[in-house]
Amino acid sequence: MSYILHRGSAPLLVSMPHTGTEIPAELRGDYAERALGVEDTDWHLQRLYDFLPALGASVITPRYSRYVIDLNRPPDDAPMYPGASNTELCPTHFFNGDALYKEGRAPDAAERLRRRETYWQPYHAALAQELARLKAEHGFALLWDAHSIRSEIPWLFEGRLPDLNIGTANGAAADDSITTAAAAACAGIPGVSSIVNGRFKGGYITRHYGRPDQDVHAVQLEKCQSLYMQEVAPFAYDEMLAHRIQPVLKNLVTSSLAATHKLYAR
Predict the structure, then answer these.
(1) Can you give the pLDDT at residue 82?
(2) Are 159 and 146 spatial neighbours (Cβ–Cβ below 8 Å)?
(3) Would residue 188 be called left, alpha or beta, if left means φ above 0 and alpha means ψ between -120 and 50 degrees?
């Protein structure tokens, strides 16, 4: 199985599409040696979000690295952020722009299609089915797309990112009351900056599945890894830092879910 899905009881599905760390054995020889360290992983998110089972959340995570396929990119590989550096459906560069593959070994069109069918489609089929199940049971659903990234990556963005980046596709993916609740949950926290629909507005998952008119709301949270871990190898989890930010994350999720419940409490 290329993904793991834990089904919960609440109208909340948390997707963590970039936590996978495996590269299939038959592909490993194509990559630059450095790529086998999968440095651009969204590290330790399951541990950071360890409060989710108590909330009754469903959680879906992939087995394979984003270096194999990026589950948060559209199947046609259209750029998510036109005019900026973008990672692809089957990435060919590290986050600093260096080549991910040995010379002449990047996937061709046939291999990209194979990966889409083998890894991308099963994840999205499961995600869509779980959202449909939650909506059928509760009448609505909230999709929380969880990410993390190094705070400074010049190839992708200028300067340093805000610590917490909430994305709702400029409001198209979630009701305004949910966005407002999420923003309020991380406002005014000493030493923690935040922004709504800034550099990261939500990737394919948020933009595709967030359909407020169909009672499915989606929020992406892209957070800086400096909040809870070392941003350089060996990318170690920092228990002290994580302990400070986990209550904020829990409040973000629970406040957004409460706002979603309120929408339908009529």
Answers:
(1) 64
(2) no
(3) left
Helix 239-263 to helix 176-185 angle (10° resolution) is: 150
Tokens in use for 65?
Answer: 């690295």
**Pair 225, 43: CB distance under 8 Å:** yes
- Residue 177 C-alpha from the chain's centroid: 21
Residues 177 and 233: beta-carbon distance below 8 Å = no
Q: Residue 3's pLDDT is what? A: 97
Q: Give the start-to-end residue ranges of the domains of the chain.
A: 3-263
What is this structure's pTM? 0.95
CA 195 remoteness from chain centre = 16
Please give the pLDDT value at position 199. Answer: 85
CATH classification code of 3-263: 3.40.630.40
| Model pLDDT, residue 86 | 64
The pLDDT assigned to 142 comes to: 98
* Spans in the chain with pLDDT lower than 50: none
- Secondary structure of the chain in HEC code, one letter for each residue: CCEEEECCCCCEEEECCCCCCECCHHHHCCECHHHHHCCCCCCCHHHHCCCHHHHCCEEEEECECCCCCCCCCCCCCCCCCCCCCCCCCCCCECCCCCECECCCCCCCHHHHHHHHHHHHHHHHHHHHHHHHHHHHHHCCEEEEEEEEECCCCCCCCCCCCCCEEEECCCCCCCCHHHHHHHHHHCCCCCCCCEEECCCCCCCHHHHHHCEHHHCEEEEEEEEEHHHCECCCCCCCECHHHHHHHHHHHHHHHHHHHHHHHHHCCC
